Amino acid sequence: MIDRRIELLEDEGVVFECNVDVGRQLRLKDLWRRHDALVVAIGSRVPRQIEVPGAGLAGVHPAMDYLYGRNRWVARQEGRPARDTGAEISAAGKRVVVVGGGDTGMDCVSNAIREGAADVLLLDVYPELPASGRDANTPWPLPPKRTPSTYALEEGGHREWAAQVTEIIGRDGRVAGVHGRRVEGTSSRDLRAVPGSEFDHEADLVLVAIGFNHPEHEGLIEALALDLDGRGNVKAPVYATRTEAIFACGDARIGQSLVVTAIAEGRRCARVVDRFLGGTGVARPVSAEAMFAFEDGDPHSLRHQAETAGTVTVGDAFWSGPRDAETER
Ligand SMILES: Cc1cc2nc3c(=O)[nH]c(=O)nc-3n(C[C@H](O)[C@H](O)[C@H](O)COP(=O)(O)OP(=O)(O)OC[C@H]3O[C@@H](n4cnc5c(N)ncnc54)[C@H](O)[C@@H]3O)c2cc1C
């Protein structure tokens, strides 16, 4: 499916150049020589760190360090090119604890199971979702931030809800287990420890999947001297940054999100870039209201449904999620 989609895009004139780190390997002045506009869509890859004693022990890794290695292993098995990342993290035969119950945590669970982990426990700090699948922070029509079911746990492993890791226990410099407690509450700001609920769990490998902070600032963003918003994302309220001809969209603009959101971001950004290229040559500011005006009247549009429901005020905050939304992914 992906190959087919790439072919379609190539037929439309899109040129893909792989293995190029823009801002580090490819100099910006070389880009500008060939192009009139630049869209920064580099995702949100800086992982949130777990700030508990023992976080620096051997055997404790950010989830993506593990998942990048697994993806490359799969690529090699299928005869596709894959970068050599040196010593890859393996879960085979190990007792694995995954901290964080978002999609990234789930991918860790399934990969560890497929590798033949001895035991996989996923600890989710949030309570089990109600039958509706929504918690109080995301009333309809806001997209739910969490899902009650997952493909990963169907393959094996076990999830515990409302479980917060407070320490990673070590032996001779290596991880030996996690220490935690039960908590109540639905957001990181209102979590309360349940007295007398502390627990220990043995582990040889701890994978930390508690979300992402923002895009990498070193490299491209610094080279372009782009403004950042309060969360460290590229500041581009209506896709255009303050720098002429430079735009941003996707997770780099709104923080770690969903594939569907990133696709919608890309489409809206493309319209803005298109106007820029076909207009006076100067990026003109477009208000959020004007951006979504094309959806007015369409009874199937998210905007229309949201306004009909009367539960949210449509604006930038609506499209990027509530300001205080948890971004565990
Ligand atoms: C482990 C994991 C699991 C997920 N699971 C789900 C899921 O099940 N469902 C869902 O809807 N969403 C999921 N998401 C979220 C989803 O993948 C993202 O929201 C979405 O991919 C964001 O799209 P994007 O185009 O903005 O950024 P990305 O998809 O992150 O793409 C950014 C691209 O830019 C490249 N790049 C970065 N810097 C540079 C540079 N300097 N030069 C050149 N290239 C660069 C990166 O290599 C990457 O290919 C998951 C995310 C993760 C990390």
Looking at the structure, the CATH topology of the largest domain is: FAD/NAD(P)-binding domain
CATH class call of the largest domain:
Alpha Beta
Detail the poorly predicted runs. 280-284, 316-328
- Can you write the helix and strand succession as a string? HHEEEHEHEHEEEEEEEHEHHHHH
Cα end-to-end separation = 24 Å
- What is the overall shape? globular
**Oligomer description:** single chain
Looking at CATH, the homologous superfamily of the largest domain is FAD/NAD(P)-binding domain
Report the β-strand fraction as a percent range.
Answer: 15-25%
CATH architecture of the largest domain: 3-Layer(bba) Sandwich
Structural class: alpha/beta
- Rg measurement, Å: 22 Å
Side-by-side strand order of the widest sheet: 3-11-4-5-6
**What kind of sheet is the major sheet?**
5 strands, parallel
Helix count equals 11
The number of distinct β-strands equals: 13
Bound molecules: flavin-adenine dinucleotide
The percent of residues in helical segments reads 25-40%
Number of domains: 2
